[in-house]
Design a protein that fits this description.
Blueprint: H1 15-24, E1 30-33, H2 41-49, H3 53-57, E2 60-64, H4 69-78, E3 82-85, H5 90-101, H6 122-132, H7 134-160, H8 164-179, H9 184-196, H10 202-226
Parallel strand pairs: 1-2, 2-3
């Protein structure tokens, strides 16, 4: 999406790599994911800020799956200048770039989506197609579909081992992946499991996981049958 705004983009696989890249390259702005393997985005930001005067000033933007004030406060305390809530929309990204780089906001972006009550947010899918292109959107949805058996297996293993922390972790991953691609009912169920998973009984966890898996399968079937976005 940043490339659509005319920027060159480098990607870091984890927090430690992000710190190393920031120290070696002169970036105009850094977008920092809060949830990364190993070092998280908060610690990565603190280390970047502590490096030198240049990195103490570069804009760092938090990317978070939660719009709750607590996450925003933690990002600010770690030294971040601003935040974006996933899924990231073109208009929100454009406003951040305007604030921190003085970049004009394009006037040809689709209007901000309105909330609806369906299983899939097709307005979001249209915005993603505009931002990323149809080919990349199809690739992302295909990747989501292809990794679903692995996600199901991880949920089943967590249930079998009564590993509530891993169950919550898998729910967090599914929430982020699903919300970013418009699978809103799946994202809502995954978020509920993430928030309540450690307090639920074993029977309740099993019931919730079964419902979550069913909604994932139903959403993928709907995409395949009702749109041309996800190739069959």
């Amino acid at each position: 999406m940043l490339e659509r705004f005319g920027h060159r983009v480098d990607l870091a696989a984890n927090g430690a790599e992000a710190v190393d890249m920031a120290r070696k390259q002169d970036y105009a702005i850094i977008f920092m994911d809060m949830q990364m393997p190993g070092m998280d985005g908060f610690e990565a930001t603190r280390q970047i800020r502590a490096t030198d005067e240049r990195l103490a000033q570069v804009p760092i933007i938090a990317m978070t799956a939660s719009a709750l004030g607590g996450e925003q406060a933690k990002a600010q305390a770690a030294g971040m200048n601003d935040y974006l809530t996933k899924p990231i929309m073109p208009d929100s990204l454009g406003m951040v770039l305007a604030r921190h780089l003085g970049q004009p906001v394009p006037d040809d972006a689709p209007p901000r989506r309105a909330n609806d009550t369906g299983t899939i947010d097709y307005a979001l899918l249209r915005e993603l197609e505009y931002s990323l292109g149809l080919a990349m959107l199809r690739d992302l949805l295909t990747l989501y579909r292809d990794q679903t058996p692995g996600r199901f297996a991880a949920l089943d293993t967590a249930l079998a081992k009564d590993d509530d922390k891993e169950l919550v972790h898998q729910a967090h991953l599914i929430k982020g992946e699903s919300s970013g691609l418009g699978l809103k009912a799946v994202a809502d169920l995954a978020e509920e499991l993430e928030l309540r998973g450690q307090r639920l009984s074993r029977t309740e966890r099993e019931r919730h996981v079964a419902t979550l898996k069913d909604y994932i399968e139903r959403s993928l079937t709907e995409l395949e049958a009702g749109t041309s976005v996800l190739p069959q």
